[in-house]
């Protein structure tokens, strides 16, 4: 099992550009989440999904879109990048609400 | 609204001594509580969880945590710290039946040889 994979590992964008961060898991997990990690602020939930076709907003959803067309994939779209979106982004998945989450290796995004 | 507080930015402990990393939470209804660890330049790993049942839960690498409902706390403990335990520790919560998980700001643990 590859677990949770994220691409790219690093990305630099200019203000206003759009891009998609990819996340995939091969554990047949229903639950998936996107977080951003900023110094001193822990992880903040951006969007989450409880199954294919079902997504919901987390704490900081503005500027981000998600979709979940398959169980395996949960891409995160930045619509128009802003410097405030400079962060490390983690995707995570779990089998159920009661299980700990498996995290991907992260994507370090810089917006200039 | 849900919230998690980790009151200490940093905890320093000598190798071989017991360690405690504190966490308090606020959630409507019954909480599902989790601890995660992040080693330098690595992703996060799940350590342990409390869902229901015994208030003392055991997890990976010799860690344990005690759920205290009256104090709304879920402190992480280890009887004897190792230098290799030095890392960033996160407490997380979501309400039973939900999945909107809130993380604390993290506590950096330094274990000195």
List the helices and strands and how they pair.
The complex is a heterodimer of chains A (112) and B (113).
Chain A: E1 4-7, E2 10-13, E3 19-25, E4 31-38, E5 42-51, E6 54-57, E7 64-66, E8 76-78, E9 87-94, E10 102-103, E11 107-111
Parallel strand pairs in A: 2-11
Antiparallel strand pairs in A: 1-3, 3-8, 4-5, 4-9, 5-6, 7-8, 9-10, 9-11
Chain B: E1 3-5, E2 10-14, E3 19-21, E4 24-26, E5 31-38, E6 44-50, E7 56-58, E8 64-68, E9 73-78, E10 87-95, E11 102-103, E12 107-112
Parallel strand pairs in B: 2-12
Antiparallel strand pairs in B: 1-4, 3-9, 5-6, 5-10, 7-8, 8-9, 10-11, 10-12
Can you walk through the features of this model?
The complex is a heterodimer of chains A (112) and B (113). Chain A is mostly beta strands. Chain A has strands at residues 4-7, 10-13, 19-25, 31-38, 42-51, 54-57, 64-66, 76-78, 87-94, 102-103, 107-111. Chain A is globular. Chain A starts with a strand and ends with a strand. The mean pLDDT of chain A is 96. Chain B is mostly beta strands. In chain B, 0% of the residues lie in helices and 53% in strands. In chain B, the strands form three sheets. In chain B, strands 2, 5, 6, 10, 11 and 12 form a six-stranded mixed β-sheet that branches. A four-stranded antiparallel β-sheet of chain B has the order 3-9-8-7, with no helix packed on it. In chain B, a hairpin with a 6-residue loop joins strand 10 and strand 11 (102-103). At the A-B interface, strand 4, strand 5 and strand 10 of A face strand 5, strand 6, strand 10 and strand 11 of B.
């Amino acid at each position: 099992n590859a677990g949770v994979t994220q691409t790219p590992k690093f990305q630099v964008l200019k203000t206003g550009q759009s891009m998609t961060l990819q996340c995939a898991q091969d554990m047949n997990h229903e639950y998936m989440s996107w977080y951003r990690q900023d110094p001193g602020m822990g992880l903040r939930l951006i969007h989450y999904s409880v199954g294919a076709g079902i997504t919901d907003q987390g704490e900081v959803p503005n500027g981000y879109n998600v979709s979940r067309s398959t169980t395996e994939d949960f891409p995160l779209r930045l619509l128009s990048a802003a410097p405030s979106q400079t962060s490390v982004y983690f995707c995570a998945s779990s089998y159920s609400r009661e299980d700990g989450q498996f995290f991907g290796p992260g994507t370090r995004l810089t917006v200039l | 609204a849900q919230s998690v507080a980790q009151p200490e930015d940093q905890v320093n402990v000598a190798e071989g001594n017991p360690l405690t990393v504190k966490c308090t939470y606020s959630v409507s209804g019954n909480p599902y509580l989790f601890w995660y660890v992040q080693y330098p330049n690595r992703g996060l790993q799940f350590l342990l969880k409390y869902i229901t049942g015994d208030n003392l839960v055991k997890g990976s690498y010799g860690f344990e945590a005690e759920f205290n409902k009256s104090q709304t706390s879920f402190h992480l403990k280890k009887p004897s710290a190792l230098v290799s335990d030095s890392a960033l520790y996160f407490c997380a919560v979501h309400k039973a039946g939900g999945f909107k998980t809130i993380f604390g700001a993290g506590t950096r643990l330094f274990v000195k040889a």
